[in-house]
Write a structure and sequence with these properties.
alpha+beta; Immunoglobulin-like; globular
Length: 161
C-alpha cells in the first residue's frame, strides 16, 4: 500500500509545483523615495539638493528610468523646467541639483515608470514634503498618474501661502 501512495503523492507534488511556477508572479510598481537633506560629507552627493532612491521589484534602475520637471509659478506665469539627474556610484540612487530659478513657487514632479513623487519646498527652499499620489486597488495603494490640473492646483495653494 505504501508503494501506491508514494507515486500518487509525488504526482500531486509535481502538479502543484507546475501550477505554482506557471501562475503569474505578483509584481509591484517601482517606488521612489527622497533623501533630503543630503550628507554634505558624501563626495558623490556633494552639492545635491536631494538624493532620489528608486526601488524596482527586479533589477537595478538606470538614470534613463527617471524623468522629472520643476513645475513653478513665477510672477503669475506657469513655468516647467526639465530635470537632469546624476549618478552617485550607488545602485538605485541618483543625485538632483537645483536647476530652476530661485524666484517663484516651485514643486518637483519626479517619475519612474508609473510612479510619481511630488516634492514641495518651504520658503527657504528646503524640502518640506514628499507625496506619492496613490489609488486604492483591492488591499493595496498603487501609484497613480498625476494630472497637469493637480500640479496647477497644488502650485496655486503653495503660492497663496
Amino acid at each position: 500500500m505504501r508503494r501506491l501512495l508514494l507515486p500518487a503523492f509525488a504526482a500531486v507534488v509535481v502538479m502543484a509545483a507546475a501550477a505554482f511556477t506557471t501562475a503569474p508572479l505578483l509584481k509591484w510598481p517601482p517606488w521612489l523615495s527622497i533623501e533630503a537633506p543630503v550628507n554634505p560629507f558624501d563626495p558623490a552627493a556633494r552639492g545635491a539638493l536631494m538624493l532620489v532612491h528608486v526601488s524596482f521589484r527586479e533589477g537595478d534602475a538606470r538614470i534613463s528610468d527617471l524623468s522629472g520637471a520643476a513645475e513653478g509659478m513665477v510672477g503669475g506665469v506657469r513655468r516647467s523646467v526639465p530635470l537632469h539627474f546624476t549618478e552617485t556610484g550607488r545602485a538605485n540612487t541618483f543625485a538632483l541639483r537645483r536647476q530652476w530659478p530661485a524666484e517663484g513657487t516651485w514643486l518637483l514632479r519626479l517619475s519612474v515608470r508609473e510612479t510619481t513623487a511630488l516634492v514641495m519646498f518651504d520658503r527657504d527652499g528646503a524640502v518640506s514634503s514628499v507625496r506619492v499620489p496613490v489609488r486604492r486597488s483591492g488591499t493595496f495603494d498603487l501609484p497613480r498618474a498625476v494630472s497637469a490640473r493637480e500640479i496647477d492646483s497644488t502650485l496655486a495653494v503653495a503660492a497663496s501661502r
